[in-house]
């Protein structure tokens, strides 16, 4: 079953105009995109729904970054010099790269972990500068994931966290999880991976520590290789807790988090407002207020995990 997701905007947007371009006189807007994952189609669909037709009144300049800081910096610098009217960036690594590349071109960030704590914005209500967008995290999400995992795997005592050391939001998340694990009697095992070589090697090394479960973030680099991660978990019969619904549809055990397709689509609204003259500084950063629990019952059976009936009954989606 699938329930509709609602995401609300914090505060209102001022009607100030972005002074750098005579936007009303433009007939073709140029939007820069950093990244090339399938989720970007939801952003493009959102732009289309707002009246933008590629090749007629909008052009997309796409630069790939592979979730790597150096490539993200190169992509952001290139887009800033094209020039483009707006840069759209998914995740903290690309958003920070775009912020460093330009203080004048408006930036819309998508699914950043904590934009204030990682230095992207002054506040959620008034981000300041040339950047705005949405966040993938709401308050108390990390502890909630741990509680759900404990319900599904009551015996969990050694919990691995896969994180990207280059992703500032991953570091913030690590701190939140480290603060929450002692009360649950859980020891945290950190698995750092910012390159493909590190991912394969450190997951293999993890086996010697006999983890009871693995937490996977929404880090763009990890998401590019999530099939590898899910395969590792399946082959070694390790339960995985994910942030993203699509990871569970692909074979992960359970996810709890906001809908990425919704966040990509809603980013189009920010781009539209900026193209119409609104300052990024005056557009509040959006946080999700509805989080979905998705469970893969097939994966649970393969792992020998029994999902509590109450969780199955309250889940937003169950893969049979």
Description:
With 320 residues, the protein is α/β, with parallel strands linked by helices. The protein contains twelve helices and twelve strands. It is elongated. The N terminus is likely disordered. The strands form two sheets. It has a seven-stranded mixed sheet. It has a five-stranded parallel sheet with strand order 2-1-3-4-5, with helices on both faces. The protein folds into two domains: 138 residues, Rossmann fold, CATH 3.40.50.2300; 145 residues, 3-Layer(aba) Sandwich (Rossmann fold), CATH 3.40.50.
Please indicate the count of domains. Answer: 2
Low-confidence spans: 1-22
CATH architecture label name of the largest domain: 3-Layer(aba) Sandwich
Rg over CA atoms, rounded to whole Å, is 20 Å
Shape descriptor reads elongated
Mean pLDDT: 89
Strand proportion: 15-25%
Number of helices: 12
Terminus-to-terminus distance: 10 Å
In CATH, the topology of the largest domain is named Rossmann fold
Structural class: alpha/beta
Task: Kindly report the spatial arrangement of strands forming the biggest sheet.
Answer: 7-6-8-9-10-11-12
Instruction: Please trace the helix and strand order, writing H or E for each element.
Output: EHEHEHEEHEHEHEHHEHEHEHHE
CATH hierarchy class name of the largest domain: Alpha Beta
Helix content: 25-40%
Largest sheet: 7 strands, mixed
**Count of strand segments:** 12
CATH superfamily of the largest domain, called what?
Response regulator
Care to give the gist of this entry?
By secondary structure, the chain is of the alpha/beta class. The chain is built from twelve helices and twelve strands.
């Amino acid at each position: 079953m699938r329930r509709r997701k609602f995401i609300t905007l914090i505060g209102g947007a001022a009607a100030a105009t972005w002074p750098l371009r005579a936007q009303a006189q433009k007939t073709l807007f140029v939007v820069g995109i950093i990244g090339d994952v399938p989720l970007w189609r939801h952003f493009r669909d959102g732009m289309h729904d707002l009246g933008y037709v590629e090749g007629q009144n909008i052009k997309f300049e796409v630069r790939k970054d592979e979730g790597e800081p150096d490539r993200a910096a190169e992509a952001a610098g290139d887009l800033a010099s094209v020039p483009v009217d707006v840069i759209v960036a998914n995740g903290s690594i690309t958003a920070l790269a775009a912020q460093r590349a330009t203080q004048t071109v408006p930036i819309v960030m998508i699914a950043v972990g904590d934009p204030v704590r990682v230095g992207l914005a002054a506040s959620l209500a008034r981000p300041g500068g040339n950047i705005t967008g949405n966040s993938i995290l709401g308050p108390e999400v990390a502890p909630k994931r741990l509680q759900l995992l404990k319900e599904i795997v009551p015996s969990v005592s050694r919990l691995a966290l896969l994180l990207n050391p280059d992703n500032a939001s991953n570091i913030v998340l690590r701190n939140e999880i480290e603060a929450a694990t002692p009360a649950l009697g859980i020891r945290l095992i950190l698995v750092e991976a910012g390159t493909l070589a590190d991912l394969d090697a450190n997951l293999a090394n993890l086996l010697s520590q006999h983890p009871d479960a693995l937490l996977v973030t929404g880090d763009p680099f990890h998401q590019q290789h999530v099939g590898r991660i899910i395969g590792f978990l399946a082959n070694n019969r390790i339960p995985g807790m994910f942030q993203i619904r699509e990871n569970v549809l692909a074979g992960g055990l359970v996810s709890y988090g906001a809908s990425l397709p919704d966040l990509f689509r809603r980013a189009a609204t920010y781009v539209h407002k900026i193209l119409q003259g609104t300052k990024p500084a005056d557009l509040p950063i959006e946080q999700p207020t509805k989080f979905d629990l998705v469970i893969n019952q097939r994966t649970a059976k393969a792992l020998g995990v029994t999902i509590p009936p109450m969780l199955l009954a309250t889940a937003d989606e169950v893969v049979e």
